[in-house]
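Suppose you are handed a protein chain with no further information: no name, no annotation, nothing but its sequence. What can you learn? This example shows the usual starting point.
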Amino acid sequence: MKNVSSLVQVFSSRKMAALLLLGFASGLPLFLTSRTLQAWMTVENIDLGAIGAFSLVALPYSLKFLWSPLLDRFVPPFLGRRRGWLVIMQVCLTLAIAAMALQNPRQSLQLLAINALLIAFFSASQDIAFDAYRTDLLEEREMGAGAALSVLGYRVALLVTGALALVLADRLTWPLVYLCMAGLMLLSVLCSIWAPEPAGRDRPPETLAAAVKLPFLEFFQRSGVTKGILILAFITLYRFGDALVNNMATPFLLQTGFSQTDIGTIQGGMGLLATIVGTLVGGAVLSQLGIHRSLWVFGGLQALSNLAYFILATVGQNYPTMVLTINVENFCGGLGTAGFVAFLMSLCNPRFSATQYALLSSLMAVSRDILVAPAGTLAEQTGWPLFFLCTIFAAVPGLALLPFFAPWEGDTQQEGQE
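A reasonable first move is to predict its three-dimensional structure. Written in structure tokens, the prediction is:
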């Protein structure tokens, strides 16, 4: 009973409410330059090769570590080091998303790409500030709950921009849909103002040079060079198979014969419930298994969930199979992301949390945004069933690295609990 009471107290705190809302703000722009934009381009009859290559507009997510030291070093004149940067980036995002209402994919893919690139840049910068905010805000005992709720908010945002947006697109024009999403982004500014500021437990770096150099030196000094390199390779590859699926899921579903409303309604209904359950289960399981063992379990389930897409590609336009597929993907995505976020937070020193987390999450974005660029061409050459089988094998290299730095029997967090 005492453990249940403590868990309820952690989950119901103002910290957790802020992480849920800011997690939503963090996830809101992602699909507006990827999956949702792909849907817009698909109905405009843009070819699959161009749609797949458009994942390169998300390059800022992979390069954000280059300017993350600026957010560690400099403090805005309002709301503190973390929340001040959040507000600045959220205002810029609102303007950039609203500007998408002026674009037309048929007339100019270049202008569309530039606008999407700006959204990705401001979104990546918001992620730097939010990830540092979350890392600085949480005590060690709160990491599981904090990771779960921030991931939950993030996933809800993905469902809003990837599900509700598709439903709206069958009733409104795409430019109006993007204006609605810009309005939601504007509301996030109020969340940042209301959120509590982390206690200043660690001084920011005294110079920009120190803000650039010290986070890297500290990470490798703490981990060791060999182990540190393996960790970085693992972060890059852990979600690669899942990233391949996510990059082409919407074109696949549309080409299979499902309407935008079909996709949006199922994702926004049962898919949302599966995401909530998966995320909260992930946070609870993580507190029992520990971070390392959770990476094993969640990573395996994440890879196996791609079988659902293989089955759907084999049977074709079958609504029960589609429902099952979307629910399995959302549930396992919630599990995997909750464990992965907690792992990344555990690797950061609060003094350099913006730079270190940005570096680590940038490597994760390499697989999500850059390595997946040929996915459309691969799907065209192999066909959808074989493509989804390939995504399962793509998850193996990341899982194969776990024994080198996160052995099942060596989870220090679990040992401490025992």
